[in-house]
Design a protein that fits this description.
This protein has twelve helices and six strands. It has 229 residues and is an alpha/beta fold. Helix 3 packs across helix 4 and helix 8 runs parallel beside helix 9. The radius of gyration is 17 Å and the shape is globular.
């Protein structure tokens, strides 16, 4: 049997930055003449940004503004927040436990490579991550399965032996499309019901709760069959 593979999302799952990201999306849209509430934007948190823009704007405006909006959002985030955001508690301890179990760790995240490098440093997990795929590596981000399929290919581990851990319904939907099991975390602001409906077999409060429950994750039937908080 292949080694188990734990695939982690990063922003909102390992790094506490959902609020900051939404502020930057709000301000990016405002800079282009569009006002959206934080509640409306949060509904799309973790979704492929091009998909989000196409949903929120008229077709011609979405095509015209997609690149300026993404550039503005990224610029605002790097300038205002990137250096200040921090990992959630027990991220390194969780990764150390995963490695002690003999499992492989991969990251599948929509952030850029430079942001990912920064996050690896502040979370102190660079030495524990085996494989990464970020937004620059694929043409479509979550809920499309390309990021997860890429880390499966890089790890040479079948989907049946992998679990995706993320904080949004889009992580779970991408996992389902890649035939990978999913575990949800409440740290991104979505409810247990939303994450379960998207396909999470278990839901935990955050990284600390996941660390405490880690031994059960190795028992696939038990850990993924009954949602928990």
């Amino acid at each position: 049997m292949a080694q188990p593979l734990f695939i982690f999302d990063v922003e909102g799952t390992l790094i506490d930055c959902v609020r900051q990201t939404l502020i930057c999306w709000h301000d990016a849209f405002a800079s282009c003449g569009y006002e959206f509430s934080f509640e409306k934007l949060h509904h799309h948190s973790g979704r492929d940004p091009d998909d989000m823009i196409r949903i929120l704007l008229p077709k011609t405006e979405a095509e015209r503004l997609a690149k300026p909006l993404k550039d503005a959002q990224g610029g605002f985030y790097r300038e205002r927040f990137l250096e200040a955001v921090r990992p959630f508690p027990d991220v390194r301890a969780l990764f150390e436990q995963v490695k002690r179990s003999g499992a492989v760790i991969a990251l599948a995240t929509t952030c850029s490579k430079d942001e990912l490098h920064h996050y690896l440093g502040v979370a102190e997990i660079s030495d524990l991550v085996d494989h990464c795929a970020c937004g620059e590596d694929v043409s479509r981000e979550k809920p499309h399965p390309e990021l997860i399929e890429l880390v499966l290919d890089r790890a040479k581990i079948p989907a049946a032996d992998a679990v995706m851990i993320g904080d949004t319904p889009y992580d779970a939907e991408a996992a389902r499309r890649a035939n990978v099991s999913a575990i949800g975390l409440l740290s991104g602001g979505f409810t247990q019901e939303e994450l379960t409906a998207a396909g999470c077999g278990a839901v935990h409060a955050g990284t600390t709760a996941l660390l405490k429950a880690f031994d059960s994750l190795l028992d696939r039937d038990r850990s993924l069959g009954t949602p928990q908080t």
